[in-house]
Prior knowledge:
It is a single chain. The protein has seven helices and six strands. The protein has helices spanning 11-20, 22-38, 46-53, 61-73, 94-104, 106-109, 183-199; strands at 42-44, 89-91, 131-132, 144-146, 158-163, 170-177. The strands form two sheets. Strands 3-6-5-4 form a four-stranded antiparallel beta sheet, with no helix packed on it. The chain has a two-stranded antiparallel ribbon with strand order 1-2. The chain is elongated, with a radius of gyration of 20 Å.
Amino acid sequence: MKLDPEFFDREDVAAISGEFGAIGELVVIRLLCEIRKAGYYICWDTMRKMAFVKLIGGLTPDTLDRIVERLVEYGFFRSRYRGVGGAAGVLTSADIQRRYIRETGAGRLRRRTQWPHLLIDPVEEGVVPAKVDAGSADEPEGVALRIDPVRPLSSQKWMKVRIRTADKALHVYRRVPNPGYKAASAVDAGSGLLTGMVNRKRAPCL
Length: 206
């Protein structure tokens, strides 16, 4: 994980520093490190919170709760929620997810089939999620295929090409431009897609 030289000048981070001092800044950095070690999100439950408190001398559970709540309020973390009955929440953000993909590399992530708690479209970042499908004959290798089977092809900026793999049941793809893409129609279709992503039921924290 690379730290922006102007990280502490960010309005949200400066606000945390102003309210909680140096311990607030340290909490922010440690949280980002914990998320990056796990990938692009962490489950935020009582057990993880108490273990996190032990990492920073002088930090109390109450202060940690207040810092995290402020970070959510300021939009630093865009997806933190509590499930029914106080189930585990999730700490992540669109920016964290984009950085994860860019720093890890699209090539290394092509075989990933599960992308829980996404706030972004991984295809826009160069990653077409892989899938497991025993009926491999229906998708030829090396041929440009549509990504979304429902949306008109002209509204899709990208297509996918299946890559040859030793495991025929694992479908792995690379992203390619769609030569028939029309920006105007994509804008019309995009509003519905965005609404669908916002209203999508979140999966339980895994």
